[in-house]
Automatic annotation (TrEMBL):
Pfam families: MCD
GO biological process, alphabetically ordered: acetyl-CoA biosynthetic process; fatty acid biosynthetic process; malonyl-CoA catabolic process
Higher taxonomy: Eukaryota, Viridiplantae, Chlorophyta, core chlorophytes, Trebouxiophyceae
Biological source species: Auxenochlorella protothecoides (Green microalga)
Location of the Malonyl-CoA decarboxylase C-terminal domain: 2-248
Record-given protein name: Malonyl-CoA decarboxylase, mitochondrial
Signal peptide annotation: none
GO molecular function, one term: malonyl-CoA decarboxylase activity
GO cellular component: mitochondrial matrix; peroxisomal matrix
Domain of life (superkingdom): Eukaryota
Amino acid sequence: MLDLRRLTWEATPAAVLERVKDAEAVHRMAGWGDLRDRLGPRRRVFALTHAAMPGEPLVVLHAALMTHAPEAMPEIINQPQAHLPPCDPTTAVFYSISNTQPGLARVELGHFLIKKVATELLKEFDLQTLVTLSPLPGFAAWVNHRLLVQARERSGTPEGDLAERLLVHLENDAWLSCHEAEAVVRPWLMRAAAVYLLWEKRRGLALDPVAAFHLKNGATCWRLNWRADVSGPGLERSHGIMVNYMYDLGSLEANNRVYVVQGKVAASEEVLRLLDKDEAS
């Protein structure tokens, strides 16, 4: 009873577009100009609607059509799109999915939407890659707590001293403008992000809600990206780190089964290399 609908600047009623703009929860839009860019020729916005609410998008997915898998949000948003000609894309990037109806928050419409959109885009383009560029919304709070505990419990040791240094660098984002601070923060934080995504669980499934969503879909944790979103919200959510989840249609079912039954996360060798050898095995 749900319909997949592509939203466009020219054909979609302004009231529907305004609803989409206001409901965007992942990467906020400053105004109508931002929305128009996200509806440009190299972008796609899809929504699920219901016959009982024909003018009301229930859940909205934003996709970028590109020739590579992006490593940072500036490659996708805040780029003028309205007057660019269509490209010949090889990659579809899902970078935002938002539920516009709070009452449907526990209804898993997003799983259905992302697979329907993938099918539609594969009909339209000769795509080789389907990926996301996703935040780690709980990572910053998790890692800050972990460092506080380490600094307190290991005070006076090299591990405790390192935790204190990291907390200072992260508290004021000093690493953004200091190469020496970044050299300390980056390797530790990237490894911590891999541990967080692959090993931190709640009731057997990923602690991070975005990871739980994509892994349940059967996606692979493919790449972690440093300085991917250094906006205020990006730093607050995950200290600027973002993750690409890969949607390989041939392995979705197997990945889903192993994840749901065994709690095992499908991850690329690149992500596993961030861990210690014992953790990776």
